[in-house]
Amino acid sequence: MVIFEATRIMILTAIAFLVALAVTPVWYKFIKKHHVEKQIRESTKAPIFHKFHEKKAGTPTAGGVIIWGTILGLAFLFFLLAKIFGGHFENFNFINRAETYLPLIALFLAAILGLLDDWLGVLKIGGAPGGGLKIRHKLLLYALLAGVGAWWFYFRLGWDVLYVPFVGSIVIGPWYIPLFVFIIVASAFSANETDGLDGLLGGVSLFAFVALTTVAFVLNRYDLAAFGGVTIGALLAFLWFNIYPAKFFMGDTGSMSLGITIGVISMLTNTTLFLPLFAFILVIESLSVIIQLTSRKLFGRKIFLSTPIHHHFEALGWHESQVTMRFWIISVISSMLGLSLFFLSRFF
Question: 0.90 cut: is pTM over it?
Fold first, then answer.
């Protein structure tokens, strides 16, 4: 059974990679033809960012459609094939009410909202630099989505337990709702802040999904693990084109959907307290922004040369690809540490 499920997940991962790789030229041609391009306005509040990234203006964006389009497309396709023909096609169907309904719905809703934000940026509409939604508006949207998810988990599914490593499951009652909202908002915000260098968010998200997929598999949630495998395959194909120098950017349609999905899977697997290790780079990226803003408001000075923190290292003289690769290495190590603690707390 375990070997069969592992093989099934690996096959789905490979299929997702090949499908995403095949559709990329089609989507790239579309966004290039319709000028779905990144807009970078000069801003006195972020001179370092503008210095290093003004040359990227005009690069096609909304490449995240490749990722979530592949995931949702394969989910729908295999579901239909399983219903119509049955047989071996049922082995590839990973839509499961208890395991993958919520991640798929969250992925879709966040992707559409992110795509809207990307389009506003293309039209140069909105208060954010380059166009699009302001951070506070994004946070509000994240909170609305998280609130719906929290309601479903707590009132419909009856979830009110937090797993504490080496201690066990603790009933937290109604506190589960604000915890859920915080995790989803934090993961979405952090992913959005991390998406600033070629291949950065794609890579760190990849390692987070590998960790979460491993956890889902160990917990015998094989359809959720299959969902994670398909996401991994799609991310690998995306990175093929997104590593430096990027052919296109992920856009908010990618960062928002990936961030929210990471949060949802962590809640589904009750690994909330492991998430800071599975997604360590996302945590330090968002913390750097919060620390910078707080310091400027309270003390009138900056802690970092620029934020999110990957821009700080650029300002120190690190090449963009150096920052990305070093952050990938940190992600691998932190994910391995998180998985080690997960296995130790579960089996010892």
Answer: yes
